[in-house]
Design brief:
By secondary structure, the protein is of the alpha/beta class. Helix content is about 60%, strand content about 10%. The protein contains 24 helices and ten strands.
Length: about 550
């Protein structure tokens, strides 16, 4: 595989002049300003046989031939040249305006048909046209070849040739890159997650153009991004750059320069993973492994690292946060303490090498569930917090780095506490009592402890509550506890005494009496009814 290099000084062509009259050949060779036209080599032949020998042994881009020659005409040479597969430019010179000559010349695709006597001005105009057209054709061929090669490299990255080395080698030969099959390369996989702002500023096409070109320039020293491929992957932009295998220090410096350039120009964050050296048939596996490693190395966010630096995978079923402790801190609305706790848990995982996007996402889920339970005490839905979109935007990025996780958690807690306080200001006294009971029903509370929490006397609180609701605090507390007990008894395997203790009854006899009074069944009868075959069958039919 050869990397494209920028061309310098234009194309230099080779021209062959054929005429049996040596002075005419010498006049053309000396009069025309060849170098200015981009023609570097001028060859001479004085008959068809000499011309054929030169054409078969040299690369000739342009032939200028007289038509009338004693040992074979220029038309014969043109016909032989085309029959031999020659496709380059051909100028015919003649002293006669003969239609039959012109007809044969057109039939064999002569480029120009010029009349003698030789005119430098006319010849240079014709040559200038030919050189320009040939330059455009060569450029088009190069562009087409580059495009076809880019399609091939992209197919390799997509795994289209995996398990079929013969087909891959044939495709390489067709694209003139067969030397690449045994060479080793390194893939630099760059991931950019904060795209919304840049997409809004530059638009998708301009942004991709800029990113692909800066990757090509810094990582492979190219002016064209022939070996840079971009794709959207899991709501982020991924760029894959194919680089020849090189010293680790050099490619590391290039990645560092790339990250800093993106940060300076776009004010964004880019993370790069350098694959291990691989052959073309391993490209697909190599870039996907590197991309996964970016997600598994949260600590490397915004920097570069080698794919060999693998983070230890943690079980997705593992509980990452102490939910009971979280519940207490949420009840106290202690945002600072919660954030410090979250940072400590992330740093623990960072030191053990298990801080990955997966583990951050799990922590995110657990914190969301804890906040949801906290808000549910006042019948606040967590979806209310996402109105306006700011929380949803932060939530989407939370698992990509520790900083993004803290930003999301801070915003979530601020919004949740704000909604809670807003509701508290609107609540009546009875609603505040009920909210307190729903939060503490499993604890040994009564009217006195509730009144103390609200800085009111028990008698005044009791009177105000009954005035607003028509019932007593004790009755609401008992009713709520029994409601929670019924929910527990629906679960298979739970003991009645454990259910009673879990909802705040320390006297089993009193629990049973109150339970039957409310439901008409003893706790044991209720549990049997909930788990009877008929009940289970009925529940299945409902599902």
């Amino acid at each position: 595989m050869q990397w494209n290099k920028p061309e310098k000084g234009g194309t230099t062509l080779c021209v062959l002049i054929v005429d049996d009259d040596q002075p005419t050949v010498d006049a053309i060779a000396s009069a025309v300003h060849w170098a200015e036209l981009g023609i570097g080599t001028v060859l001479r032949a004085y008959n068809i046989d000499q011309a054929k020998q030169i054409i078969t042994t040299r690369t000739v881009d342009l032939i200028i031939s007289d038509i009338e020659m004693p040992k074979g005409s220029g038309l014969d040479l043109l016909h032989w040249y085309r029959q031999s597969g020659g496709e380059n430019e051909f100028i015919l010179l003649t002293c006669h305006e003969n239609f039959s000559y012109a007809s044969k010349a057109l039939h064999d695709r002569a480029t120009e048909y010029l009349l003698k006597p030789f005119s430098v001005e006319v010849m240079e105009v014709a040559l200038r046209r030919i050189v320009l057209r040939k330059s455009e054709q060569d450029q088009l061929r190069r562009e087409n070849r580059r495009k076809m090669q880019a399609v091939f490299w992209n197919d390799l990255l997509e795994g289209h040739y995996e398990g079929n080395p013969g087909r891959m080698q044939k495709a390489m030969q067709e694209h003139f890159i067969e030397d690449a099959v045994s060479r080793k390369y390194q893939l630099v996989v760059s991931r950019i997650t904060d795209l919304d702002r840049d997409l809004e500023r530059f638009g998708r096409e301009l942004l991709l153009f800029a990113l692909e070109n800066i990757h090509a320039e810094i990582l492979s020293g190219q002016l064209e991004p022939d070996y840079v491929f971009s794709r959207m992957q899991r709501d982020c932009l991924v760029l894959i750059t194919i680089c020849p295998e090189q010293e680790a220090r050099r490619i590391e410096e290039q990645c560092q320069r790339l990250i800093l350039s993106y940060q300076r120009v776009m004010q964004g964050v880019m993370t790069c993973c350098i694959s291990q050296p691989c052959t073309p048939d391993q490209f697909c596996r190599a870039w996907r492994e590197a991309f996964d490693q970016i997600g598994n190395n949260v600590a490397k966010y915004g920097s570069w690292f080698h794919a060999a630096t693998k983070a230890e995978q943690a079980s997705t079923m593992q509980v990452h946060l102490d939910l009971k402790r979280l519940k207490t801190m949420l009840a106290e609305q202690d945002k600072k303490q919660i954030l410090e706790y979250l940072k400590a848990r992330m740093e623990e995982r960072l030191h053990t090498g298990t801080l990955t996007e997966t583990s951050l996402h799990q922590m995110q889920t657990e914190l969301t569930q804890a906040v949801h339970a906290y808000l549910a005490l006042d019948d606040i839905q967590i979806s209310i917090l996402q109105q306006g979109g700011s929380l949803a935007d932060l939530e989407q990025k939370a698992s990509q780095s520790m900083l993004d996780f803290v930003r999301w958690a801070s915003f979530l807690l601020t919004t949740a506490f704000g909604k809670k306080q807003e509701l508290e200001q609107q609540q009546t006294l009875s609603q505040k009592v009920q909210r307190y009971i729903r939060a503490h029903f499993s604890e040994p509370i009564d009217r006195n402890s509730i009144a103390a929490a609200m800085y009111l006397s028990p008698e005044h609180l009791g009177k105000m509550y009954k005035k607003e609701t028509g019932t007593s605090i004790k009755d609401y507390l008992t009713e709520y506890r029994l409601q929670k007990a019924r929910e527990l008894l629906k679960r298979p395997g739970i003991r009645i005494s454990d259910a009673a203790l879990a909802v705040g009854f320390d006297n089993f006899t009193y629990f049973s009496t109150m339970f039957k009074k409310q439901t008409g069944l003893t706790p044991n009868e209720y549990r049997k009814q909930m788990h009877s075959p008929e009940k289970m069958e009925g529940e299945e039919r409902i599902d």
